[in-house]
Prior knowledge:
- The protein is built from 6 helices and 4 strands, in the order E-H-E-H-H-E-H-E-H-H.
- The chain is of the alpha/beta class and 155 residues long.
- The chain has a single domain, classed as Rossmann fold, CATH 3.40.50.
- It starts with a strand and ends with a helix.
- 4-nitrophenyl phosphate binds next to loops.
Amino acid sequence: MSINVLFVCLGNICRSPMAEAVFQQMVNDAGLANQITVDSAGTGSWHVGERAHSGTRRVLAQHGIQYNGRARQVTAADMADPDTWIIAMDGDNLRDLEGRYGRHPHTARLLDYAANTQERSVPDPYYTGNFEYVYQLVSDGCHGLLAAILEENNL
Ligand code: 4NP
């Protein structure tokens, strides 16, 4: 049985691709790549088909992480599996998903899993320009998320 994790933000070019890339790296390093599938998508459609923002790609490269994904929008199929971990970058993302698809039993904000920050929403670097801060927050949240997934699945 495969465990699915879907990171969601607004545009799928800044924050959720960062989370996908960081989390995929952690999963690979833990030797769990054949048990956990990792993806990302946006609630909006403006950037569908585009590469990640240059700021996201630059910061990932600075931390030695490759990312070649293209933006896509969340689909009903994504939300149809109640076991998929739907991990949003902020509360607006969660509200948008719930408004469109109804309540999903397995959703959270990424920073609900973060141990070293009071932030619960990842500030959008599309507006702030601070991609390194996003990397730090996302890494914190991804560590806690992986621990939660390992615990829930007795891995
Ligand atoms: P993201 O950032 O949700 O982290 O990918 C954004 C990207 C694009 C837009 C907003 C946020 N936009 O309005 O086009």
